[in-house]
Amino acid sequence: MRSAIVLGAGMAGVGTALHLQQRGWSVVLVDRGEPGRETSYGNAGIIQSEAVEPYAMPRDRASLWAIATGRSNDVHYEVRSLHRHLGPLLRYWWHSAPRRHAAASRACAGLIAHAAPEHAALIEAAGAADLVRRGGFRVLHREGRAMQDAVAEAERLRARYGVRSRVLSPDALAAAEPALKRTGAGAIHWEDPWSVRDPGALVSAYAALFVRRGGTLLRGEAESLGPGGRGWRVRTADGTVEAEAAVVALGPWSPALLRRFGYRIAMVRKRGYHRHWRSTRLLDLPLLDAQNGTVLAPMAAGLRITTGAELAGPEAATGPAQLARAEAAARDLLDLGGPHENAPWSGIRPCMPDLLPVVGPAPRHPGLWLQFGHGHQGFTLGPATGRLLAEAMSGETPLVPAAPFSPGRR
Ligand SMILES: Cc1cc2nc3c(=O)[nH]c(=O)nc-3n(C[C@H](O)[C@H](O)[C@H](O)COP(=O)(O)OP(=O)(O)OC[C@H]3O[C@@H](n4cnc5c(N)ncnc54)[C@H](O)[C@@H]3O)c2cc1C
């Protein structure tokens, strides 16, 4: 029986472990904590079938000026830590040019088409249907001009990829979400995405399914990874584990580990924050306030307010400005009540400068496989890229062309 160690029990690692197991591999899933407690816990919980095009760096003057002058809350940066992001950001800029973005979009659209079906199979097998709402999500636009642009964009995505959406007038939005105090210029309702009321619990449910099916879940430190008798070994709380293959699925921590093996991997590290509020009148579906880059997501723990991207230093600020602005914007839309937590959660979206996740064999280390860099959509994509990697490791035909996601791509 072929054997693998999967390092990292976020959505990407758990998705991979389940797909390897399904193909007859003996799998040990290793994490230093509980499954789904990091980035895969803290996100907005949307399984984004509409995200057919990866999130490009804004290139138009108006957007860049808004970011540079701090008027956009979608992207926030600290001047003193900007130099640390410059290399990856320049590459991100280059790959966001229209022709390159179009190529990345073709690859992304092919993959994202498999995201919800892959989740559906796992949700059913894991008995996790009560965590998932299949009603889509809405994007509120506060200004008429922004709404017009959004309608045109939704039409473009429908014509090109078949993405389904409905345009809601301010009145229609008010009828759909009576808790809203204002409805701006209306909303786009993306109809096909699903939302999860406790993202970490969904990952835990998938991990429990992996264990029920005979997989081994262990606490261990990925930094102990090294070549071993059968291929690779790692130290865990239950002793040293060896396997012929190892998978690095450590989300934003992946480049740091791989540096030890001589790989220098540029990643755009986009921090995001959230905090839950005890709003008494919750929303029916998640709502993205486009102008503020803020998602208001009804969750089991309350109304989760998440922020856009912050390019900050590694030391997380508590009481961050971007979250404060997001919460002020949310208060303008809803009666928030009091916060559940004093200190907000923060985590890093692991974004690759060329907009696509890294899924495939490590270029110079036989038996070492990579599965990270899912950026803004890792909660959505983990099971689909897990399948793509398991197929590559098993020598099967991949569900989508694998080359755009290859670690060796240029
Ligand atoms: C605010 C915010 C909102 C988001 N909203 C959405 C959304 O609505 N939809 C969507 O699809 N995506 C969303 N994302 C993105 C998504 O959350 C991530 O892309 C995804 O969770 C990454 O999953 P992962 O498994 O790669 O990483 P992680 O979930 O971070 O998992 C990595 C695992 O590695 C483990 N680990 C790290 N270092 C070590 C070590 N040395 N030893 C052992 N274990 C280690 C960690 O404990 C962790 O469990 C959002 C992200 C943020 C920040």
Could you characterize what this model shows?
By secondary structure, the chain is of the alpha/beta class. It has 2 domains: 1-56 and 96-131 and 197-266 and 354-410, FAD/NAD(P)-binding domain, CATH 3.50.50.60; 61-85 and 132-196 and 267-351, 2-Layer Sandwich (D-Amino Acid Oxidase, Chain A, domain 2), CATH 3.30.9.10. Helices cover 33% and strands 24% of the residues. The protein contains 12 helices and 22 strands. The strands form 5 sheets. Strands 7-8-6-16-17-18-15-20 form an 8-stranded mixed sheet. It has a 6-stranded mixed sheet with strand order 10-2-1-14-22-21. The chain has a 3-stranded antiparallel sheet with strand order 3-9-5. Strand 12 (231-236) and strand 13 form a beta hairpin. Helix 1 (11-22) runs parallel beside helix 9 (199-212). The protein is globular. The two termini are 34 Å apart. 50% of the residues are buried. The model has no long low-confidence stretch (mean pLDDT 93). It binds flavin-adenine dinucleotide. Residues 8-13, 31-33, 37-40, 42-46, 48, 221-223, 249-251, 253, 272, 274, 306, 347, 349-350, 372, 374-380, 382 line the site of flavin-adenine dinucleotide.
Percent strand: 15-25%
User: Could you list the spans in which at least 5 consecutive residues all have pLDDT below 50?
Assistant: none
Mean pLDDT over the full residue set: 93
Fraction in helix:
25-40%
The helix-and-strand class reads alpha/beta
CATH level 3 topology of the largest domain: FAD/NAD(P)-binding domain
Assembly state of the chains shown = single chain
Total number of helices = 12
CATH homology-level superfamily of the largest domain: FAD/NAD(P)-binding domain
Named at the architecture level, the CATH assignment of the largest domain is 3-Layer(bba) Sandwich
| Widest sheet: strand ordering | 7-8-6-16-17-18-15-20
The hetero compounds bound to this protein are: flavin-adenine dinucleotide
CATH class of the largest domain: Alpha Beta
- C-alpha-based Rg, rounded: 21 Å
* Number of structural units classed as domains: 2
From the spread of the alpha carbons, the general shape counts as globular
**Tell me about the biggest sheet?**
8 strands, mixed
N-C termini distance:
34 Å
Number of β-strand runs? 22
